Amino acid sequence: MNRLASETRTKIVCTIGPASRGDDLLRAMIRSGMDVARINFSHGTKDEHREEIGSIRRIAVEERATVAILADLQGPKLRIGKLTRPLDLKRGDFICLTDLPADGSDNVIPLLHPGLIGSARVGGHLLFDDGLIEAVIREARPDALIAEVVLGGRLSSHKGIAAPGSGGAIETLTDKDRDDARYAVAHGVDFIALSFVRRAEDLRDLRELLDRIPGGDRVAIVAKVEKREAIENIDGIIRAADAVMVARGDLGLELSPQEVPFHQKEIIRRCNRLGVPVITATQMLQSMISSPRPTRAEASDVANAILDGTDALMLSAETASGEYPVEAVEMMREISAIAERKMPPRIDEIRFEELEHTHPVTDAISDATARIADEVDAKLIVTSTWSGYTARQIARERPHQPIVALTPNENVARQLALVWGVTSLRVEPYEGADGILGIVSVALIGAGYAKAGDLVVITGGLPIGGGGKTNFIKVHRL
User: Fold this and answer.
1) Which of 258, 333, 370, 371 is spaced 20 to 30 A from 166 at the CA atom?
2) Host H or E run for residue 144
3) pLDDT confidence tier of residue 120, bands split at 50, 70 and 90
């Protein structure tokens, strides 16, 4: 059963991988608070992804839960190839990077992008695994790079590699991404995340591709902000995206680590102004890969992202390959619950004129709905929605009340799983105002979200269908 968003308003995105593929684990993660399952196309096979998607859909139905699926495209990220075994690198070690497969020789690292060898320069830095390992290039040969490790660590297969300042522009949407996007759409995902977005045109290219694929027009696009150019073009990117992810790992390789927290806050603020859902990602509870509890710094990081206004928090390796995937979800939910209790709802401080408005009438009604619900001390805000737009606009007001979105559109119901404070209920198609009022009581009481006599504020659009046509508010006693 869907939990009402009053329990925790902030949504949880979990990356699925070897540590979380079993039915029992997926079921436990859903029960613990997973709202969105992330399928990382940088790892795994298509058969594995197909099985993951099928299992998530089946178990969500069994649990009567609304769980969205996000397919994360690899993008042009440089990665090392398959190693014969993990390498334990120490400061002062020398490594050899080559475009040939690993042959078992000590400290030989194959590259999946041979163009790096030709563009890297002696003295340049190489960053592995989101900057956890660093080396300096000492020699550049036609077929290999020799580098000295200056920051050691354990390096395993297919980890990312960055060489700041060493290469020119690379096409954001790769051939692999195009193929993976077609596969993801064919298997019914709800979101596709585009990696290494530089400008709004990158998102429009993906939109054009999806619109040519049967069913692709229903898939929402998540822009991953992890390049310096994206920061420079952030307003256009947010406007062109259906959702935004602050991918702090790769962003921290492009910028200094000291800058990242301030860009995180600014990106979240801008997304909130436009009503675009935003995910904060990377190393949120990193220590829980191998520990049953997070560090105090990680708990503070999660809480501060919530105070910043993020819609969702993402777990990566914590649930994909960690030893405590279910515990990580539970901990994320517990931190969220406490942070939200300590954070006064921002409806008390948000001014309507300070927000940006795409549909002025709908936006004004959404604002009024949140404020009326506050004034009359309503139990819930209920939105009848076809596109999900009204629910998102109410959510950006951060009202005191949970938001319940009633929609006949199953795809929209799942996509709203990413939006702060929104619980979606799939309902049968209905006609007119009487149809809305009739279904509200049945849906809310049947789901256990309210009881007879409770006061709710309802908003929606008449006639039913389409999006951005919200035109009524009703204060209603069930």
Assistant:
1) 258
2) strand 144-151
3) confident
